[in-house]
Write a structure and sequence with these properties.
With 359 residues, the protein is mainly beta. The protein is built from 3 helices and 21 strands. Helices cover 8% and strands 33% of the residues. The structure holds calcium ion (2 copies).
Length: 359
């Protein structure tokens, strides 16, 4: 639930929503622990702009800024308020959920036993939110971090000398920041060394945190992890290559590679690191307590690619012949959109034959 992404990325995705992922609700894949239904993506969900994992629930953001949530709802964490307005980012904790509204304000719902939903005043214009279990972090557009909620381990005692912060990540009982100089800082629970930043850590461009571990992406592309290693959270794969996103929570970490592939390490007790077959290509990743979600890569429309595999070939001809004679609205075999599949569509397909689909 600590994603290396920006609201700019959400906006650019919104322009690409015309494509579909047949049979994949919302363009979301989810795997791992599912006892609370956190991986039961609702049917009929439109393609999502972003997704985040709570401890036992999942939150997703539609292209139009509407929030959806499913999974554990014991504390109302999946009861999305109806009056949020346009939401640009979401985050999920143990019993609560957080939304960043387009005007830079923060909304919260669900469990408030530690004040994790008591959003303080004076946050400024917030540009980033993060939560893991029972505390919440915000980062405003001036680079100032605020924290509220559970503070038994000092996870909400934000140091005064963080510099101008560009990224925040809430761990289970600790907090992490990254500033404009690429410096990582940690505070809160240190029972496993999760707040001891390695002395030889180079400048970083990304951070993430699990319950008892911390992860950072160095400017040179190398991923470093420190803290608890009881489930192999620190065993970073050696062949990651360039990565474009890191996310962590619970006891595992995922990265999105520059080729839109996924690598996962750490706890796999519930299959949270067992990647589904046919997962790639992926556009975004999120981690919950013991589950993982992926937002599948959304491509621009490609006329003639009837079976949605980004190639125009005999498989598409076969799909067109299957639909020969009639067509329902939006049927891609009906390339000229006149309600029937006939020779005109076959001609249109042949003019597209072998043409590469846009990346
Ligand atoms: Ca095709
Ligand atoms: Ca037609």
């Amino acid at each position: 639930m600590n994603a290396l992404h920006t609201t700019v990325a959400i906006g650019s995705l919104a322009t690409l929503c015309a494509a579909t992922h047949a049979g994949v609700e919302g363009g979301i894949r989810c795997w791992g622990y599912n006892v609370s239904g956190q991986c039961n993506v609702p049917s009929g969900l439109p393609l999502m702009a972003w997704v985040e994992g709570g401890a036992n629930h999942t939150i997703a953001l539609q292209n139009n800024g509407v929030v959806r949530a499913w999974g554990l709802n014991t504390y109302g964490q999946s009861n999305v308020p109806t009056n949020l307005g346009v939401v640009v980012d979401v985050a999920g904790g143990f019993g609560h959920s957080v939304a960043l509204i387009s005007n830079g304000t923060v909304r919260c719902w669900g469990l408030n036993d530690f004040g994790q939903c008591a959003v303080p005043s004076g946050l400024g214009v917030v540009g980033w939110i993060s939560t893991s279990l029972d505390h919440t972090l915000s980062l405003n557009t001036s680079g100032v971090v605020r924290a509220w909620g559970a503070n038994l381990d000092g996870q909400c005692n934000v140091p005064t000398n963080l510099g101008t912060v560009t990224r925040i990540a809430a761990g289970g009982y600790h907090s992490v920041s990254l500033n404009t100089a690429g410096t990582v800082r940690c505070w809160g629970l240190n029972d496993a060394g999760q707040t001891v930043v390695p002395s030889n850590l180079g400048p970083c461009v990304g951070i993430a945190a699990g319950y008892y571990h911390t992860a950072a992406v160095q400017s040179n592309g190398n991923v470093r992890c420190w803290g608890d290693n009881g489930y192999g959270q620190l065993n970073v794969p050696t062949n990651l290559g360039p990565i474009i996103q890191i996310a962590s929570d619970g006891y595992h970490t995922v990265v999105l590679t520059s080729t839109y592939g996924v690598k996962c390490w750490g706890r796999n007790t519930y299959g949270q690191c067992t990647l589904p077959t046919g997962l790639d290509p992926v556009d975004g990743l999120a981690v919950g307590g013991n589950h993982t979600t992926a937002l599948l890569r959304v491509f621009p429309p490609c006329a003639g690619d009837i079976n949605d595999d980004r190639a125009i070939d005999g498989a598409d001809l076969g799909a067109m012949l299957t639909n020969w004679g009639t067509a329902t609205a939006g049927e891609p075999s009906d390339m000229n959109n006149d309600g029937k599949v006939d020779g005109a569509d076959l001609g249109a397909l042949l003019t597209r034959w072998g043409v590469p689909c846009p990346p």
